[in-house]
Write a structure and sequence with these properties.
There is one protein chain. The protein is of the alpha/beta class and about 270 residues long. Helix content is about 30%, strand content about 20%. It has eight helices and ten strands. The protein has helices spanning about 10-15, 25-35, 50-60, 135-145, 170-180, 200-210, 225-230, 240-250; strands spanning about 65-75, 80-85, 90-100, 105-110, 110-115, 130, 155-160, 190-195, 215, 255-260. An eight-stranded mixed beta sheet has the order 1-2-3-4-7-8-9-10, with helices on one face. Helix 4 packs parallel to helix 5 and helix 6 (about 200-210) runs parallel beside helix 8. The radius of gyration is 19 Å and the shape is globular. The N and C termini lie far apart (about 50 Å).
Length: about 270
């Protein structure tokens, strides 16, 4: 088994991932705060954490980072597109998004490539390469936040490369780290997960009572047209997706969030 990445865990799951180290909850919280919230790469001087446990963590776990291959800055506003490279050479993108208030949100990728082949999506032409690990999702946010001290990062949107619900476990693990008080401290209502409509995953999401915002990328309410734009739509009709989103709305904030890619003459 590969060594667990220390930025891919909440304090609670870190204890579970490394049971032989005998971490106390207090130790795990302080370690996560240092590595995620502070975005440091060392464990020196953590109150109450013995040198032996600190060494054990760094031996048993990983702390590698994503490489920034390219940055493309808008000439007219604070948008920045990042191209990241993982240790295995896979590349994927993130975007720093300025909000109306002086804050940033970050659009993250959840996969390298994508298997869904949506007609309007450039990533779909790449094909699927692999799912991103939780730390690779978290590190996109932490790296961009570290480079953007002029505004706080208060939101994350899972709407970059890939279909988040095809990487369900890792996406939820990353979201949990991002919202944790010892992690990135981003409110659960400011973490948004977008799906093109994988109904079994939506139903699982509802049953598990996840606290994040869910957006359904509908793009067309007409079944035949929607299937021509999003091939996966042929598996789950619009009326079934509508019922599921209504159930979610009753359990959350009585709001249904829909996304629409507008294409002139196609769905306008």
């Amino acid at each position: 088994m590969p060594r667990p990445h220390l930025r891919g865990h909440t304090p609670e799951t870190l204890i579970e991932a490394l049971p032989d180290l005998g971490l106390r909850p207090t130790d795990a919280r302080r370690v996560t705060t240092r590595l995620v919230y502070d975005y440091q790469a060392h464990l020196d001087g953590i109150s109450g954490l013995s040198r032996e446990k600190a060494r054990g963590l760094l031996v048993a776990g990983r702390l590698d980072q994503l490489e920034v291959v390219d940055r493309r800055r808008s000439a007219v506003d604070p948008f920045v597109k990042y191209l990241f490279r993982a240790p295995d050479g896979r590349t994927f993108e993130s975007v720093r998004i300025p909000l109306e208030q002086p804050r940033f949100s970050i659009c993250v990728s959840s996969q390298a490539g994508c298997a869904l082949r949506c007609a309007f999506c450039e990533t779909g032409r790449m094909g699927f390469e692999r799912n991103l690990e939780p730390w690779e999702i978290v590190d996109q946010v932490l790296r961009i936040r570290a480079e953007s001290p002029e505004r706080p990062v208060t939101g994350v949107v899972f709407q970059g490369q890939g279909e988040p619900f095809q990487n369900y476990e890792n996406v939820m693990a990353a979201a949990d780290v991002l919202r944790h008080p010892c992690g990135a401290r981003i409110g659960s209502d400011r973490i948004t997960i977008s799906t093109v409509g994988l109904l079994p995953a939506i139903e699982r999401y509802i049953e598990e009572g996840r606290p994040y915002r869910l957006i359904l990328s509908l793009t067309s309410a007409f079944g035949d047209k929607r299937e021509s734009l999003l091939p996966v739509a042929g598996k789950w009709p619009v009326d079934q997706l509508a019922d599921a989103m209504k159930r979610l709305a009753r359990r959350q904030r009585n709001v249904i969030n829909l996304a629409w890619v507008l294409m002139a003459g196609v769905n306008t």
